[in-house]
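Input chain follows. Return structure tokens only.
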Amino acid sequence: QVQLVESGGGLAQFGGSLRLSCVASGDVISIYTMAWYRQPPGKQRELVARLGHDGSTSYTDSVKGRFTISADNGRNTGYLQMNRLKTEDTAVYYCNAALYVRGGSWPEDYWGPGTQVTVSS
């Protein structure tokens, strides 16, 4: 069984930093692509950052220059470094990854359960 689990969320002050982690466990061979989404209270889920299989990255405009997505395939872990946090970054953050798993022929899509990030003013 394959699971994605986020950690690192919590309460941060305006201007502060948090680092979210996303661990892929189970019969995982490697991470093909990874993305972070967030869902603010009362709003739809939105794509925050994406890491391509070639190492390319993309970010939604509101986090460019503040957030950095990365992954460590040796640890089957992805990260989202969030700096200069703003109150509008408050949301539940979800990890989404395409993973090569044992017995599979192509990358399979998985989601984590989410982690709450709250930024206070």
